[in-house]
């Protein structure tokens, strides 16, 4: 409640202030956390940093549209909250710069605010996604299915080649039909796999093998040590 009162009162003060220049400066600085992720999309910002723990790119994850929408809403919500907080803070601090001498420090304050709001957005959105990915790797190595993360969570799978194993296009990677791999879904006819033993990531055509879920795949379930052949 105190935060809501702070934001509403600060924006009201800023809106009632005479002159458009202070408001435009504040708006340009505050829109940074919205403009920056908008260049590459909202949800890929989360999936890129989450997948970095597995060396998997965002475009290699099969994420349902609804989860992409939810992730985008989350990123946009954090960005909007930072925008409102900065505008409210500027509204409360603006009366301090009425004197001519203090107005000279407005560019310094604006630059500091740019750095602060960018760091806040990075810590809340990107660092949290990276931490979730690191936690998923730790859960996997401890033998447990990782928690859900906006539809991008890896699933334990077993693979059975349809033809000879030597004819699979693995590009130098090793595939063991008895081993449990982490799958990030099927994209453009290929399934991206993460090898928890070597840490390698490689894609295999889905028409060259059978892909079966190892266990139930729910968060917290035990990951089988080996696949049945």
Describe this structure as you would to a colleague.
This protein is of the alpha+beta class and 229 residues long. It has helices at residues 2-16, 21-30, 32-38, 43-51, 65-93, 100-103, 106-141, and strands at 155-161, 181-187, 190-194, 201-205, 209-213. The protein has a five-stranded antiparallel β-sheet, with no helix packed on it. Strand 3 and strand 4 (201-205) form a beta hairpin. The longest helix has 36 residues, at 106-141. The N and C termini lie far apart (59 Å). The mean pLDDT is 79.
Distance between the termini: 59 Å
Question: What structural class do helix, strand and pairing data support?
Answer: alpha+beta
List unreliable stretches of 5+ residues. none
| Molecular shape | elongated
Question: What is the ordering of alpha helices and beta strands?
Answer: HHHHHHHEEEEE
What is the fold's blueprint, element by element?
Elements: H1 2-16, H2 21-30, H3 32-38, H4 43-51, H5 65-93, H6 100-103, H7 106-141, E1 155-161, E2 181-187, E3 190-194, E4 201-205, E5 209-213
Antiparallel strand pairs: 1-2, 1-5, 2-3, 3-4
Helix pairs in contact: 1-5, 2-5, 2-7, 3-5, 4-5, 4-7, 5-7
Q: Outline of this structure?
A:
With 229 residues, the protein is of the alpha+beta class.
Features:
229 residues, alpha+beta, 7 helices, 5 strands, elongated
